Each structure stands twice: as structure tokens, then as C-alpha cells.
Amino acid sequence: MNITSTDFLFFSVGFFAQMLFFSRNIVQWFHSEKAGKILSPLIYWQISLCASITMMVYGILRKDFAIILGQFITFFIYIRNLQLQQKWKVIPPYFRIAIGMMPLACLAWILFSGSNNLTQILGNEKIPQWLMILGITAQVTFSFRFVYQWLVSEKNKKSVLPVGFWIISITGASLTITYAIIRLDPVLIVSNLGGLAMYSRNLVLHYTGKGILSTSPLKARN
């Protein structure tokens, strides 16, 4: 794989996005370990929004429809979780409008940019049709965890990260790693390998109720 200066720039954007995603997982893990149960901290969703915007840009630069689709599915769910935590309206209105317009700005970039238009993204010769189907399946599966999380949160009238979220995360990450290896995408490989460890740890925490940083471990869940 020959990496050009352009590739290096694109990968830098992707690694920055994944660094944000990984940092949100670290923050969530730290809070949960300290409490001895799975938590859905505010900062998790705030970082998610920033990371999602950056990852959309990376997907466009890489002409990778699977990445773009995944971020479009989850972006507004992040906002909804901030609303459920009564923190969305705390953000100044002009920032809320700017954040909400970001996916539309990316869509406009895709539709009207000569070098990153939709036809080129869907017809990217570097991604054969079967591989694109695998990538889309991986991203839809991975993104569905947030759809599931959103439905459970709406039912509970509060932002939660249920056990099913972590099971779907492990499945989606495994599929994404397979896609990334074939696609030779170091951003997706590194980030999802790290994510698998976090997702698995949250499952252990859910079933044991024993947080590494907790001073009063909870009883194991049934």
C-alpha cells in the first residue's frame, strides 16, 4: 500500500475522529468503573457529536459510503441523548443551529463538490460492490446499536447504555474490522480493535457489577 501525502492527510483526519471516539469510550469506562455500573455520562454524547462530524468529513475524503452512512444514522441520536439529559438547550442557540446543520453541510459537499460527489463515492473503483455491501452491513449493524440505545432510552425517559448496546457493538466492530482489513484502512482497524476491548469490559461490568475503580461493588446482574 503506497501512502501519498494526500492519503496521509486523509488518514490524519480519520485518526483524529477515532481519537475522539476512543476518548469518549475511555470517559464512559472510567465513570462506569468508578460507579460499579454502566453509566451514560453527558460528556460521552458531547464528544460523540464532535467525533461524528469529523468522521463524516473523513468518509467523504475517502469516498467511503459505508462510513458516511454510519455517521448520518447516529448523529441526531447523539443530540437526542443530550435532550434526554436536559443539556441540549443549555448550549447557546447559534451553536445548536450550527451543529444541527453540519450533516446538511456534508450532504451539500457530497452533492455539489466536483471531486467528492455522490456518483464518485458510490462508484469508487477502489471498493468493489461486494466489499461495499460488507462495509454497509458492518456500519448499519454498528450504527444500529445507537438506534437500539435510543429506543431503550425513550422507553426509560432517560439516557442509558443497555447491555444490548454492547453486544451489538461487539458484532458491528468485528464486521467493521473485517471490512477495514480488506479495505486497508488503518483508521478503522486501530479504532475498532481498541473499541472491542471497551465493549467487552462493559459487558463484564454489567454481569459482575464489579468496577475496578469502585469502592462498593454492586451485585452481579441476572
**Biggest sheet record:** none
Domain tally? 1
Judged by helices, strands and strand pairing, the structural class is mainly alpha
Share in helix? over 70%
Ranges with pLDDT <50 over ≥5 residues? 217-222
Give the radius of gyration. 18 Å
Distance between the termini: 48 Å
Annotation field: number of helices: 8
Overall, the morphology is globular
Mean pLDDT: 85
Q: How many beta-strand runs? A: 0
Order of helices and strands: HHHHHHHH
Strand-residue fraction?
A: under 5%
Gist of the model:
The protein is an all-alpha fold.
Can you walk me through this structure?
The protein has 222 residues and is mainly α. It has one domain (5-208). Helices cover 76% and strands 0% of the residues. The chain has eight helices and no strands. The chain has helices at residues 5-35, 42-61, 65-84, 93-112, 118-122, 129-156, 163-183, 186-208. Helix 1 runs parallel beside helix 8 (186-208), helix 3 (65-84) packs parallel to helix 6 and helix 7 packs antiparallel against helix 8 (186-208). The chain is globular. The N and C termini lie far apart (48 Å).
